[in-house]
Each structure stands twice: as structure tokens, then as C-alpha cells.
Design brief:
By secondary structure, the protein is of the alpha/beta class. It has one domain: Rossmann fold. The chain is built from seven helices and seven strands. Strands 3-2-1-4-5-7-6 form a seven-stranded mixed beta sheet, sandwiched between helices. Strand 2, helix 4 and strand 3 form a beta-alpha-beta unit. The radius of gyration is 16 Å and the shape is globular. The protein starts with a helix and ends with a strand. The structure holds S-adenosylmethionine. The site of S-adenosylmethionine has 15 residues, from loops.
Amino acid sequence: MKDFWNDRYGRAEYAYGKEPNVFFKEQLDLLQPGKILLPAEGEGRNAVYAAEKGWQASAYDWSENAYKKAMQLAEEKKVKIDYQICSLADLDFEPESFDTLALIYVHFPNAIRTMNFERLTSYLKPGGSIILEGFSPNHLKYQAKQPSVGGPKSDDFLYSIEDMKLHFDGYRFKTLKQEVISLEEGDCHVGQTEVVRMHAVKP
Ligand SMILES: C[S@@+](CC[C@H](N)C(=O)[O-])C[C@H]1O[C@@H](n2cnc3c(N)ncnc32)[C@H](O)[C@@H]1O
């Protein structure tokens, strides 16, 4: 699977573009800059945007090519980001040390989802925000009609509002919705689909 991502990022073009995800940008712009953690951050579009806005951005991804592209983008935009080539299990941040956690198209399969969300939210301060956008279970219908929209091919990886309520029980939901949107992110997320969008505040 790591080879798949290295191949995807091995081109000059940015798979999901150089601009931040629309929902991420909209929600981040509502917050005061602080420390932000961006798991599975790929080519750095969201981390670089956060850094441009004054955030201290820490990102990771297991793909070496993702790292190279993210560093290239940071240089282009003249910002610094902290970016580790690793997986979740390798992280060694202080507990409750981040103000915001950004999960943009970070799709964990059901079997490890609870464990991974718990580990990631352990790094979030009480009162800190999670900004999440991911494909909903209805995504597969859209993907069948328009493969250019990308995303997981199995419903084991997809997120519903009910899943989010279960995983983030006790959080305050500033936004939690499933909606049909038109994605225009590079050449790997192009077309109409349904997503879950969440901005939740840790108790
Ligand atoms: C759909 S891309 C999203 C990238 C980025 N969040 C964005 O929105 O542009 C999913 C990313 O997850 C990363 N990834 C998948 N499994 C991983 C793992 N076990 N450890 C670290 N990164 C992983 C891939 O390399 C890929 O960059």
C-alpha cells in the first residue's frame, strides 16, 4: 500500500493540488493559530496553508515522495513545517499538546478506527478542535459513476455521521453533516460525491 502512495506522489503534479481542502480552510480560518497536527498529510497542501496562516504545523505520512513534495511546497510558499516520514504508531508527541487535529481524507478501516482515533485525540488539548472531512458510505455510488472522484473502494473505510457521534462521544459538534459536494482537488479527487464534514471540540 505504501508503494501505491509513493507511485501516486512520484509525479511533478500534486495529486490533490497545492490548495488546501475547502472545508479545512473554512474551519481553520475560524480559529486562533496555535499548534496543529496533520496525520497522513500527503503532499502538504493543508499543513503549508496552516503554516502560512501562522500555525505551528506538524505533519506525518509514510510516503517518502509525499514528504519530498510537501517540503517542495513549503519552500515554494516560504514557510516551515515539521514533517515526519512515519506511521501513527511511531509518533512521540507530548499528550494534549495540540490545539487542532486535521483529518482530511484520513480513512482508517473499522477494525483499527477506535484505536487510531483514541491515539490521535490523546495529542489534542481539552478545548481543542478536530477538523475532519472524509467520504461517506454513499460515496461508492458516486465513485461507480465517476471513478475520477477517487477515494476508498470498500465501505470498511467510509465515515458516517453516526460513526462520528460514536467515536467522538462527549465532544461538542460545531459542525457535523453529510453533504454532496463537487470535489476539484488536483486530478485525484474530481467529481461529485458525498462526504462527512465535522468540526468537533474536545471536552
Ligand atoms: C487520500 S491521501 C490524503 C492526503 C492528505 N491528507 C490530503 O488531504 O491531501 C491519504 C494519505 O494517507 C497516507 N497513509 C495511508 N496509510 C498510512 C499509514 N499507515 N501511515 C502513514 N500514512 C498513511 C498515504 O500515504 C496518503 O498520503
